[in-house]
Amino acid sequence: MQADGKIVVGGTVTNGASGNSEIALLRFNANGQLDTGFDGDGMVQTQIGESHAVAYAVMVQPNGKIVAGGYATFGGYKDAVVLRYNSNGTLDNSFSGDGIATTSMATLDDYAYDAALQADGKIVVTGYAHQSGMGYDAIVTFAAARFKTNGTLDQTFSGDGKVSISISGHADGARAVVIQPDGKIILGGYAHSNVNGGADAGIIRLQTSGELDFSFHSDGMTTYPFAIGNSDEIHALALQPDGKLVAAGYALKSNFQCFAVGRFLLGTSVDTTVPNAFSGKASLYPNPVREKATLEYELLNAEKVTINLYDLQGRFIQNVSPAAEKKPGKQVETIQFSPDLPAGTYLLSIESSKGTTIIKAIF
Predict the structure, then answer these.
(1) For 169-178, what is each residue's pLDDT tens digit?
(2) Average of pLDDT values for 100-107?
(3) What confidence tier does 244 reach under pLDDT thresholds 50, 70, 90?
(4) pLDDT band at residue 317, thresholds of 50, 70 and 90?
(5) In the CATH scheme, what is the homologous superfamily, with its name and number, of domain 283-362?
(6) Where in the chain do CATH 2.120.10 domains reside?
(7) Which CATH architecture has domain 7-264?
């Protein structure tokens, strides 16, 4: 969804003559009609690679540019791709020179199934990377890559901009990503369970640096069998206002695929714990708010503080106060929000190097 109510969808379209597929985006007006302001007819097709290309994830940046993530075929193998379009549907040449960034995360195939925007505009894509072997002997890992706003890999993420992690040592993979307000990255998917070739739901949490977060389940990863002895997969993740994680997907139960939903504790919560940087809880008034509100919080020491607004899925919405040095003591700030924010509940995040405190903002 765009801020103006227009709807962007992405996927693939097959060329009837060659049988090859291209990445496809469509944009609809709020009334369901194709938006002719988007590439003239509401539809964009982008050919990448040699044969097949698919967009699995679409995001709209706060500046209106559109990001798509998926895969394309190069040299006979599939690699992760990220594309960025201007709001009119043309490729954004300020991103990787031609609007298209690619990366290989494995010696064989790798796919990007989901993507998320960080508060600083960097793009995280996730999927799976086929490292070696075939069938039962295949080694497939969770994979993630982070791109800078210019389309280059972010070398501060795991040293080279990408990371591959195995939970089971066999066939694992990610299908969803969500970013916590504190910047930690959660990947959801599946991990081989060694039971008749089945899999369990799998979750990994990364530090902002790309390293495993050992405060999550002691080793940064966990599995859960939705249906004992069969195959389970997570395909979507969302963060609740109280900081709990909801994972949705499917479970194979008695040879039937069933809807499956699980809720997990992350060790974080909204407005119930106070990080070391703050003294007492923050408050926002009036709440519900319109375009302006007053924010009060107290710092124990001098801190550089940034204030951001996220939606309930942890997606960045707006920077309401750029990073600035604050003196110790009580802080009273007037917050200006975007006038185009749709009605709903959001997360207002007060962030410092020593911790983040989050409160709900209702519009």
Answers:
(1) 888 899 999 9
(2) 88
(3) confident
(4) confident
(5) Macroglobulin (MG2) domain (2.60.40.1930)
(6) 7-264
(7) 6 Propeller (2.120)
